[in-house]
Amino acid sequence: MTSVEGGRLRALVVEDEWVARNYLVELIEASALAETVGAVATADEARQVLSGASASVVDVVFLDVRLSGGHEDGIELARELAGPSTAVIAAGGTEDGRFGTSIEKVQVAVSSAESGDGVAILMDVGSAVLTSKALLAELADDDPEVRLVDAPLVEGAIAAAVTASTGQDLDAVVAAAEQARGMRKL
């Protein structure tokens, strides 16, 4: 159930680059599915909106993963928004900070995220997909259940985190993330 009559989602945009922030607001406002109730540049500003009187009218947060100008990033804010029972872990890049995907980083992320209910892995492109498939091939029968999710990274991650935070099982989390593939942007 949404906060708005007619079923439109009320969205908060957290994006530090003003061009991208304004563009997201335009896209949201043009959608029949959502309306913007706030657009801020930092995690602290997002916390103020979400802790204030308008918190009860925010249904979804569009969150930049890398926020500048502070000691934290969008991943940390996403963890906070998802709540303590939902693991949100980024495993991109290599150990030495280059682009790519490290199987060791993905293994650590899976181990850290596993709480007995299974783990959903969302990937962006190329090396992340290949590395995640390689990880699946290496898992033993007694390892945690791991599912690769064919979904857009940002939209799928939001849908997965929200669904997981409500206590639903891995099947529901994967289904919610994969449904994000059909979300229109224009």
Give a written overview of the molecule.
By secondary structure, the protein is an alpha/beta fold. The chain has 2 domains: 1-82, Response regulator (Rossmann fold, 3-Layer(aba) Sandwich), CATH 3.40.50; 85-186, Phosphotransferase system, mannose-type IIA component (Rossmann fold), CATH 3.40.50. 42% of the residues lie in helices and 13% in strands. It contains 7 helices and 5 strands. The chain has helices at 18-30, 43-51, 74-82, 103-113, 126-138, 153-165, 170-179, and strands spanning 9-14, 34-40, 60-63, 119-122, 146-149. The strands form 2 sheets. A 3-stranded parallel beta sheet has the order 2-1-3, sandwiched between helices. Strands 4-5 form a two-stranded parallel sheet. β4, α5 and β5 form a beta-alpha-beta unit. α6 (153-165) packs antiparallel against α7 (170-179). The protein is globular, with a radius of gyration of 17 Å.
Shape category: globular
What profile does the largest beta sheet have?
Answer: 3 strands, parallel
Unreliable sequence segments: none
* SS strand fraction: 5-15%
The CATH first-level class of the largest domain comes to: Alpha Beta
**What Rg do the Cα atoms give?**
17 Å
Helix content: 40-55%
Distance between the termini: 23 Å
CATH architecture of the largest domain: 3-Layer(aba) Sandwich
- Count structural domains: 2
CATH topology of the largest domain: Rossmann fold
**CATH superfamily of the largest domain, called what?**
Phosphotransferase system, mannose-type IIA component
The helix count comes to: 7
